[in-house]
C-alpha cells in the first residue's frame, strides 16, 4: 500500500514515514535502509564532530540513491559548521530539533534543501511556516530524548488547524495503528524513532536493543526538568541519580553528569550509566526486524485499520 500525501510528494518518497534523527543512533546504515525501503532515512548529527558527519553523509550517499536527510540538533555548540557542511554536501533534506532554526533557513532554502522543523508548540509552527519551512514535525512528549510539554494527541490537530504546510506527527507512533490515528488527527506523515532503534540495520549496541525489547509501559521517565531541557529515557541508574539532582534543583550538576552519556549508552552499551533515550512506545517494540519489514508492516496495518474504520456501521 502507498499513502500519497503532500509530504511524500515534496520529499519524493514512497511512504509518509520519516525516521527520527536520533543522535549516536541514526547512522548512515539505518538512514540508507529506511530510504531504500521507501521512507525518509535521517542521519542524527547531534554533537557529532563535523568530520564524522561528513563521513556519514558520504556513506549514506554510497548506500542509497534515494533522498535522505540530516537532523541538526540546534543546541550543539558547532552548529554553524554543521550547517555549512550540509550546504556543501547538498543533503536533500534537513530536519531540525531542540531550537529555532530561523537563522539558517535562508541559506538552506537557497540551496533548495527541504527543511522540516520539529516544533513543540503552535506558535513556533506558525513562525516556521512564515519563514519557509516545507513541513513541521509536531513532536509529542511521548517521544524519547529532548521533549516539549504537549502530547501527540493534542499537538497534531492544533498544528493541522494552524498551518497550511504538511504536518508530520511524532511521539508514540510505533505501528500502523499509530499511523492511522495521527492521519485522523490531520497529519500527512509520521516520524518514527524508537521502533527504528530495533531495526536490524540500526548500529546501536545490542544491549540497548534488548533493553527496549523488554521495556514495559511505565519504564520510561522524564528527567532533567530543572535544566529547561527535559529528556525522556528508559529508567536506569543514571536516570535515578539525575532524578535526585532534579529534586535538589541542581541543573548545573545534571548538565555536567549528562555530558557524553548518550554516546556511552548507544555506542559503548553502558546500560547503567548511559543515557537510554527512548520513547514511551519502547513498550510496543517486540522484535528486531529489517527496516523494510518495519515499514511494510506499518503501512499494511495502517491500511487495515483505515479500511476497517470505513466499514464500521455508522448511524442506524
Ligand atoms: O531534539 C529532539 N530530541 C533530542 S535532541 C537530543 S540531544 C540533547 N542533548 C542534551 C540536551 C538536550 C538534548 C536528544 N533528543 N527532538 C526535537 C525537539 N525539538 N523536541 C523539542 C524540540 C524543540 C524545543 C524547543 C524545538 C524547538 C524549540 O524551540 C524553542 C524556541 O527557541 O522557540
**Known CATH architecture of the largest domain:** Alpha-Beta Barrel
Strand content: 5-15%
What percent of residues adopt helix (DSSP H or I)?
40-55%
| Average pLDDT rating | 97
By CATH reckoning, the class of the largest domain would read Alpha Beta
Q: Domains counted in the coordinates: how many?
A: 2
CATH topology value of the largest domain: TIM Barrel
Shape: globular
Lateral strand order in the biggest sheet: 1-9-8-6-5-4-3-2
Q: From the helix content, strand content and strand pairing, which structural class follows?
A: alpha/beta
Biggest sheet, open or closed, and with what strands and sense? 8 strands, parallel
**Assigned CATH superfamily of the largest domain:** Aldolase class I
Description:
The radius of gyration is 18 Å and the shape is globular. It has two domains: 6-203 and 285-302, TIM Barrel; 216-277, no CATH class. 42% of the residues lie in helices and 15% in strands. The chain has 14 helices and eleven strands. The strands form two sheets. The chain has an eight-stranded parallel β-sheet with strand order 1-9-8-6-5-4-3-2. Strands 7-11-10 form a three-stranded antiparallel β-sheet. It is an alpha/beta fold and 316 residues long. Helix 2 (28-36) packs parallel to helix 3 and helix 8 (176-184) crosses helix 14 (291-310). The structure holds ligand TUI. Ligand TUI is lined by residues 23, 46, 73, 75, 97-100, 118-120, 124, 139, 145-148, 229, 231, 277.
Task: Offer a concise description of the structure.
With 316 residues, the protein is α/β, with parallel strands linked by helices. It has helices at 6-11, 28-36, 50-63, 79-88, 102-110, 122-130, 152-162, 176-184, 194-197, 206-213, 237-247, 251-258, 261-266, 291-310; strands at residues 17-19, 41-44, 68-73, 93-97, 114-119, 135-139, 145-146, 167-170, 189-192, 220-223, 231-234.
Amino acid at each position: 500500500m502507498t499513502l500519497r500525501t503532500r509530504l511524500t510528494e515534496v520529499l519524493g518518497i514512497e511512504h509518509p514515514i520519516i525516521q527520527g534523527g536520533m543522535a549516536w543512533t541514526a547512522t548512515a546504515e539505518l538512514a540508507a535502509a529506511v530510504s531504500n525501503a521507501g521512507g525518509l532515512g535521517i542521519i542524527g548529527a547531534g554533537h557529532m564532530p563535523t568530520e564524522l558527519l561528513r563521513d556519514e553523509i558520504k556513506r549514506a550517499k554510497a548506500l542509497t540513491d534515494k533522498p535522505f536527510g540530516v537532523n541538526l540538533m540546534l543546541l550543539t555548540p558547532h552548529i554553524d559548521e554543521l550547517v555549512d557542511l550540509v550546504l556543501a554536501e547538498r543533503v536533500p533534506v534537513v530536519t531540525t530539533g531542540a531550537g529555532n532554526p530561523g537563522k539558517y533557513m535562508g541559506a538552506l532554502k537557497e540551496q533548495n534543501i527541504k527543511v522540516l522543523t520539529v516544533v513543540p508548540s503552535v506558535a513556533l509552527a506558525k513562525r516556521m511556516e512564515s519563514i519557509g519551512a516545507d513541513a513541521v514535525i509536531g513532536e509529542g512528549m511521548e517521544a524519547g530524548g529532548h521533549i516539549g510539554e504537549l502530547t501527540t494527541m493534542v499537538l497534531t490537530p492544533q498544528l493541522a488547524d494552524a498551518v497550511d504546510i504538511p504536518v508530520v506527527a511524532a511521539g508514540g507512533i510505533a505501528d500502523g495503528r499509530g499511523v492511522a490515528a495521527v492521519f485522523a488527527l490531520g497529519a500527512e506523515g509520521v516520524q518514527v524513532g524508537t521502533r527504528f532503534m530495533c531495526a536490524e540495520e540500526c548500529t546501536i549496541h545490542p544491549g540497548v536493543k534488548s533493553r527496549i525489547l523488554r521495556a514495559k509501559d511505565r519504564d520510561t521517565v522524564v528527567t532533567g526538568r530543572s535544566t529547561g531541557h527535559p529528556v525522556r529515557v528508559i529508567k536506569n541508574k543514571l536516570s535515578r541519580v539525575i532524578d535526585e539532582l532534579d529534586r535538589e534543583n541542581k541543573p548545573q550538576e545534571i548538565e555536567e553528569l549528562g555530558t557524553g552519556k548518550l554516546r556511552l549508552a548507544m555506542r559503548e552499551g553502558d546500560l547503567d550509566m548511559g543515557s537510554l533515550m527512548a520513547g514511551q512506545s519502547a513498550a510496543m517494540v517486540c522484535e528486531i526486524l529489517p527496516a523494510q519489514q518495519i515499514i511494510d508492516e506499518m503501512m499494511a496495518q495502517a491500511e487495515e485499520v483505515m479500511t476497517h474504520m470505513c466499514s464500521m456501521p455508522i448511524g442506524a
